[in-house]
Amino acid sequence: MQKFNYHTHTRRCGHADNNMSDEDFVKEFIKKGFTKIAFTDHCPEKEEIDHRTNMRMKYNEKNEYLDSIKSLKEKYKNKIEIETGFEIEYLPGQEENLYELKNETDKLILGQHFIYGGKNELKCFRKHDFTNEDILKYAEYIKTAIEKNIPNIIAHPDLYMLSRNNFGEAEEQVARIICSTAEKYGIPVEINLSDPVMYIRKQKEKVEYPCKEFWKIASEYKNLKVLYGIDAHWREQIKLYEKAVELANEIIGKDIISKLHFCNENLEIQGENILWN
Question: pTM higher than 0.85 for the full model?
Answer without folding.
Answer: yes
